[in-house]
Amino acid sequence: MQKLSIIIPVFNEAATIGDVIHAMDKLQLVGGIEKEVILVNDASTDSSKGIIEEAIKSVTVNIKHIDHAENTGKGGAIHTGIKEASGDYTIIQDADLELDPNEINDLLQVVLDKKANIVYGSRFLKENQKGGTKLSNMANGFLTRLSNVTFGIRITDMETCYKLVPTELFQSLNLVEKRFGFEPEITAKLAKSKELKWAEVPITYNPRTEEQGKKIGWKDGFRAIWCILKYGLSRKQ
What we know:
It is globular, with a radius of gyration of 17 Å. The protein starts with a strand and ends with a helix. It has helices at 17-26, 48-57, 74-84, 104-112, 134-151, 167-172, 182-191, 218-233, and strands spanning 3-10, 34-41, 63-67, 89-92, 118-122, 163-166, 198-202. The chain has eight helices and seven strands, in the order βαβαβαβαβαβααβα. With 237 residues, the protein is of the alpha/beta class. α5 runs parallel beside α8 (218-233) and α7 runs parallel beside α8 (218-233). 38% of the residues lie in helices and 16% in strands. The chain has a single domain, classed as Spore Coat Polysaccharide Biosynthesis Protein SpsA, Chain A.
């Protein structure tokens, strides 16, 4: 692997996006892998755009900054980013700092060691870490178990942001979900390629509350169930 594409979807993340950009600047990838950062501002209505522009001026890492004229949702922003990706592999970095960017290296190492093609970062494999609230953990657990049964895989965190996927494969998938349905959709479509080898690594998780800007809600949970069944039972990739 020579280059990693990192896609950052952003919507109203003024409180944290500057810190994320500086974290990308400091991030040193294992094995001397080059990093390509693609930031997609999904028509933020707060001060995110100005903060992004100022932060980009203050770092040395090359960031491709794309502005959406209309909000399309997390999945829609990722669709835009993946079209621009040129790395050997691609990963998503949320703009809320719930995850530690340095742990991207843990996922990369699995691929470099030729242990897997697809690597997910699991928020539920780390000792002494219980993830988010009891309710969110129960919801994540249910969705992951349903995914495992429907897709014929065995993972512990289907809803994780950190999904390390070969870029060529990522770009070949016909992804249509614009909001948080992206997570079950991509997992379902990756699971249809039976020759792929999967792995998970534990990652640190610092969940935020709705008051702090967390956007996923109960309606997204019902949509996730629908997406699991829709894409999991479909023969199309």
